[in-house]
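Board notes (copied after class):
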Amino acid sequence: MHFSIPDTQELNEGNGSTYIGYNIHINGVFHCTVRYKQLHNLHEQLKKEFSNDNLPPFPPKKLLPLTGGQLEDRRALLEKYIQTVGQDPKLVSSELLVGFLLSAQQETTCEKRQEVNLEVYTSNNYQISLTVSTFDRTEQVLMKVFKQINLPLQYLQYFSLYLIKKDNNGDLVVLRKLLNFESPYMTHKTVRDSNKIVIRKSYWDCNYDQELMTDPVALNLLYVQVVSDVEKGWICCTRDIKSQLANLQSRLAKREYIELARTLKYYGFMQFTPCYCDFPKPQTKVLIAIGDQELSMRLVGSGQFVKEGSFKVTRMRCWRITATHNKQDMAANSHANVNSGLELSFEYLMSKDKLQWITVSSEQAILMSVCLQSLVDELLMKKNGVQKKQPPMNKGNWSYMKRDGSCHLISLDDVNSNSRDDGSAQKYQESFSIKKLQEKFSSVSFKTGKEFIENHAFEGIGDDDL
């Protein structure tokens, strides 16, 4: 997960005085504004939960007012701190950090707790109308989607909510996956691009399709997504195959349609908008897709694809995200997305004795990084035979410090119970045993580096793979 604090803003304290607020962006999207003392309070509570040895150093307090240069130094140190925390799956999935980020989003948006209408869509644009609390986090909203369409909670691990928009050409673009530390209602309201919340499958191993196809509702969700991906050209097929698929679609032969589509190139891949790469030469225009344990790259020229290649994730030693922030644009709009100037760089084993850095410049670079990370998580989980099991639950309460210095208790159990229907508590507890694939294998997937994420799947590569 990519955290950043690209800028600060001066906020009014209400009594005429001002203070510095730090704008936190997560996966390239503005999430909340917090004060230094709020992050310090979070750090102190993380120390109690995980011990100081498992945390990065926190920027020290200063007795005297900071100069402009010192403020920038503090911002950079805080950004380094939160980036390191964001690369540790144990910290990211802890209810303490989840509760802090959710509370900070609530405070920043000034939303009151109330029941509101929220629309979630399937891939074929079918509208699922929900009544949610403004404070409902992503997992709660997803559960309400399941209840509305009569989909058993046992399939909760296989689906996620995504923000999707149409670009200027009318093409659909996946902005990002909604995560459990945010309120989908508040995020949807804050992001200024015209977008929709869409439910899509969120796994890479296509063998999981077989389990979904045993349930009629899950089968239908999978089917409409596959049809949509074929129609958008995200799944490549010949004219003859398109004719066969159209015939199956006219007969509503959903299972047969999926089985045929599963044989096609780019089935189960995440597709990205055209971008630029420095391989094989600088400023090469490419189309990138991620899936099936690889990053696929199609070189674009003269209006059509002229060359295609792939980079196996097991041969990526590490990768990193870099960003160039435009301070003037941020000053004009502190809630702007910071995706311009983003680069994904990965170090690739080109041959037995040759490692080479390859850089992709794309507004979706962070989403690419998130996809690579979750793909490797799933790959390692399968390789090591990790079984689905109930993770330990954090039952304690923690205090959230508001910007004015006052505190209130964070208890996700209280937040959860506030939006449950009678008799659904047991279902909710059962849903916690179905954690996302990244969380289930968090202890072995990645190490945290100062500038990059190391890929443990790379360590298992042998000569036969070269």
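Comment from the instructor: Residues 326-340, 387-395, 414-450 have pLDDT under 50 and may be disordered. The first helix runs from residue 36 to 50.
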